[in-house]
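[Meeting: bench + compute handoff]

Bench side (C.D.) handed over the final construct sequence. Compute side (W.E.) agreed to return the predicted structure before the next meeting so the bench team could plan truncations. Sequence as handed over:
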Amino acid sequence: MSGKINRRDFIVISSAAVGTGSALLSNSGQAITNHVLGNVERSVASDDSATTPTFCEICFWKCAGTVHKDKSGEPWKIIGHPDDLHCNGRLCTRGSAGVGAYTDQDRLKKPLLRVGKRGEQTFKEVSWDKALQHIADKMASIKKEHGAEKAALFTHGIGGGFFKTIFKAYGSKMLTHPSYAQCRGPRAEAFKLTFGEAVGSPERTDMENSKCIVLMGSHIGENLHNAQVQTFSKALESGCQVITVDPRYSVAASKSKHWLPIKPGTDMALVLAWINVIIEEGLFDKKFVKESCLGFDELKEETKDKTPEWAYLITGIEPQVIRETARTMARFAPATCVHPSRHVAWYGDDTQRLRSIAILNALLGNWGQPGGFYFQSKAKVKKYPHPAYPKVKKRWYDLMNGEFPLASSAPSSTIRDLTRDGHFKAWMVYATNLMQSLPEQKKTIEAINNLDLLVVIDTMPAEITGYADVVLPECSYLERYDELRITSGKRKQIALRAPAVPPKWDSKPAWWIAKKLADKMGLNEYFKWNTIEEYLDYRLQSVGSSLKELQKKGVIELDHPAPLYFQKGERPVFNTASGKVELYSKRLEDLGFDPLPKFTMPEQPPQDFYRLIYGRAPAHTFGKTVNNPVLNQIMPENEAWINSNVAKQWNLQNGQSIKLKNSDGVISENIKVKVTERIRNDAIYMVHGFGHTDRRLRLAFGKGADDQQLITRVKVDPIMGATGFRTNFVTIVV
């Protein structure tokens, strides 16, 4: 599919991606309901002096902003910080609705102890002292009877760093992030194997200077990673040619020169065909490949038969389209960026699939070049001193028995499965709903039932809190100080989150919870600072700033960032064993894996079944925001995207309620049909994060369907442990 991007198209994508936030603010009188405000009348007149710096916690992008309060002292709007590289002064839909995270009446309000069976959501309210003492006593008992390494921490969010300190001080380095094996891990390891370093988070893609962008399952415009959407929009306005590979006609696909509606599971075959064209037609960066790449001859030999004709029979993409798009990439190189995407745990071959994408980028010579991948800078801020951590008896990789040799973080689902086998006795879960973030929910429940202690720290009730022994209510990000935001980017920036208002009810910030728990556990020497203000000021003093300065400015920028690109005449050196870009990976070969990516056709759906694929929506950060009173009104439930021909076959109407049944007989909750030609006829698509079963989420309960409920068959990446989510098939139950 081809089309020219004009000014009108640019306005449309800007509206789809970031304009919803503006609409939200302009219609705040309707959007902010009694549920949001708690029936409190207030003046929306702003007191310009009543502002507080913050950075958003609605998603991991963490845009810096300013909280404005009304005359009664309550927050009523949040605007982006003009100097912040994450947002450039513009918040997205979700960031603009951050006030809803504060005013949500369904928030966790007091510490809870379980009094019934796990999963029944029966608790009694207790004091913080009693809840923390209960945890400390159980942790001490587990350490004495089983060893400190029998406790594991699952964490997602900036406040998790304080609990990491507790675990390391306790004697356990069993730390895991669901975002690794369920999201970003395969691309991190693939790019490290190839270039010697990962692409970072936020990604180091230089899209604002790109002349060609290739997206493979990357839902830019729907994932609303703020600055990335803005740079993508700038690229479109500048006439950048976009190639989108996706079984679904996404927002990004609608703005593309080429949409390639690929057969699900065959992405690597397409990339190998692109590589074939670029090599056979001599379109690669010959100087860069000769001077800076290792293994080109082996790559050429491996891909010589991976022609567009070969790929056509696999992917459904016509040979002339494969050739044309490959030539387009080469024509604009090195200002061509083949985006590494995010949430890339798909089919169990994910590291190798992302390796093929890394290799394609290398052939285009775009690493360290404008429009390709830039070099990131990051501020080095001194840590607050504390004693050395005790030596641990075992680390997570000691439990792997040789599996996943290149995992740089503990795969969360593996930690779960080891718990089912009796290894772990305690979990602490910070800011992640494992019932929706981990696949195979039945295994998660079985693991939890083997625990002696499950502690959940969160702002909202969710399915995972129903299984907890202790639930600790964290206050919203508008009510707390947090760790400094020190992320990588084009310049060195530091942002501050400060409390705009006191915590509601009996909720507390993560730093307070961790410090008080450390006192109960006899670990207070690792939290020697008296106040969070003292802690933050100490760190900021090390870079010549202060808490007072950050409270005033919100964001500071340090001098002397690293160059963004290779300098003219510079001989590139890469952080690999050879010092070069390793197209052929000797490290993989030594570990018994293919040194070059090789495509294997995934299992195909049986008759009347369809591959289940999932994605994001501009209004939500997966399941984290579906109960937000403002965002819920924008998108209260998800839909099942079904091709119009399939809908005709099943006699389905748009908006009709159906259920989905997977290959193992698991049946979803009701979900409405979206009849569309914007998806292939062999797949069904839904937005992840809906179908909540916790009745305490009064807005989200029973709305839409949970795709994770249907993910009962998972293929695990043998290189680093990613769990492939797109290996499940569903049929329709009318």
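W.E. noted at the follow-up: The longest helix spans residues 7-26. C.D. will use this when planning the next construct.
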